[in-house]
Model the fold of this input.
Amino acid sequence: MGKPEHKPEHKIGKLFFLFAVIGVIALPIIILKAFSVNIDEAIAKVNNAPVSDFDHNAKQLYDTYDRTTPAYMEGASTARTLAYYYSLRQYPGSPPIIPHDMADAKGSAYECLACHERGGFTQNMNRFTPVTPHPQHTYCRQCHIKPVDNELFKETDWVSVHPPKLGRSALAGSPPPIAHPLQMRENCIACHVGPGTVVPIRVEHPMRGNCRQCHVPEEVKELFTRNPKR
Done:
């Protein structure tokens, strides 16, 4: 009888030898690459990587915070009240009417974003100007109107809905929910920060950019309900 063949064992041995040779060749290259990497450049690439839309356009909050003037962010005085805030609206959440003239004493028309894009004190009107939550929409008078007279309007039995109640935190001291829809009002800074802000809804921590990290929109509260039978 002839000697038994050991071809499978020889093939396995050759494969291990081949991997060992590849490892010996590749290991110095990997080590060289590791020591030649610039850590600062690697971190910069990560920090500058494009960020996709998150948390209902929350990136807009960070961008707006960077563009808002320090005088507006630090301002603490305002004559605007919550009642005046709602008096400009047909119902809570509707576009407010324009409460001032549309041109100066010389007849030059005002540009809305000249004052409302960044906010601050407006000398010719002697008031603090609130920031618009949507400066990307430049045709402002498509939604915001300047009442001229009442001749075109007739009396109706229209009754507005009640404004949302403030607070209503789940626990004492916990962040209150967002009591209104977010459409066209994604930018929290516009209404809750600065001297043009109504005092009862002004926040004390505008430097925390992502408001919805703690404050949950009330319209999604069903996602957080719990079945007591389970």
